[in-house]
Amino acid sequence: MNKKYFISLSIAAALTIGSLPTLGTTANAHSSVEELQKQQEGISSKKEEINGKIDEKKSEINQNISKQQEIQSQIAEISTKLKDTETKITEKTKEIDETTAEINKLKEEIEVLKKKIEERNELLKERARAIQEKGGSANYLDVLLGADSFGDFINRVTAVNTIVSADKKIMDEQKRDQAELEKKQEEVEGKLAELESTKASLESLKKDLDSQKAKKADLFKQLEAQQASLEVEKKDLQKESDELSKMEHQLEGEIQAEQARLAELARQREIERKRQAEAEAAKRAAEQQQATASSNSGGGSSSAAPAPAPSAPSAPVSAGAWTAPAYGTITTNFGWDTLNGKQRFHYGTDIAARGSVPISAAADGYVIKSQYSSSYGNVVYITHSINGQTFTTVYAHMASSSVSSGQAVNKGDRIGYMGNTGYSFGQHLHFELHAGSWNASKSNAVNPRQYINF
Question: How far apart are CA 93 and CA 394, in angstroms?
Answer without folding.
Answer: 91
